[in-house]
Amino acid sequence: MNDLLQRLIEFHRTARELAATRALLAGVPEEMRALHDEFTAAKEALGALEATARETRKARVAAEGAISDAQEKLRKFQQQVPRVRNQREYAALLTEIDGAKAEIKRLEEQALGALEAADRSIEELEARKAAFVDLEARYAEELAAWEARKPGVAHHASELETEAERLRAELPRPILAQYHRISEKYRGEALSPLRRSEGPGASFWFCSTCNYQVRPQVAVEVRTRGVIVQCEGCRRFLSPGEG
Ligand SMILES: [Zn+2]
Questions:
Q1: Using one digit for the tens of pLDDT, what is the confidence trace for 42-92?
Q2: 91 CA to middle of ligand 1, Å?
């Protein structure tokens, strides 16, 4: 069959394969997908743990700084003790000293908490890093294999481009324009095969995508004369289908 419909079908097949090949080149092969996702997730988790470890370290340093400030304050109060002039001043100073001591105690507890949190997050980070080494090695291996395959795939893509160009040139412009509109609307699924109704009674043909019934003479035109017809239901181009 060297009719217009056949040319459209061939162009469609080539365009679809080209799109799939380009998508493959922009991503990773299907058999690598699971490992790729696992690797990406593990890497992100590791990054988050590293951020947490950095934060807890910072919190620890901040807590230690606050303790030394409070200790300095306490020392100053204590230095004032010999200089008090009466009982009232002495009582007031003692209150300040007690307050400073309580503050130091509170800050020390906070620092201990920060220290424990920092230790825990570093421990978890180390464990994750150890597990990641193996995953990273497996991923690197598969990635290298894919990189080795890539030039061949890229070559195939350029062959498909040439072929699509050749087939495109053989199609009338209005049909091409319509094809691209429909293809865009249906994510590349611009063609729909005809299907024959099964079961008892008079058989008829319908669009296998949207189930719209096709008039018998239209089915004949599509199936035997290679006429380009769009489904009245979904606007896809009808292809002969099987049988
Ligand atoms: Zn349809």
A1: 999 999 999 988 998 888 899 899 999 999 999 999 999 999 899 999 999
A2: 93
Ligand 1 centroid vs 11 CA: distance in angstroms? Answer: 20
For residue 170, which amino acid is it? E
Report the predicted TM-score, pTM, of the whole model to 2 decimal places. Answer: 0.66
Rounded-to-integer distance, Cα 30 and Cα 95, Å: 72
CA of 194 to the centre of ligand 1 (A): 9
Compute, in angstroms, the gap from residue 214 CA to the centroid of ligand 1: 9
Q: Right CATH number for 25-170 from 3.40.190.10, 1.10.287.1490, 3.20.20.80, 3.30.70.1400?
A: 1.10.287.1490
Residue 74 alpha carbon to ligand 1 centre in Å: 85
209 in Cβ contact with 192 (< 8 Å): yes
Count of beta carbons in the 10 Å neighbourhood of residue 207:
22
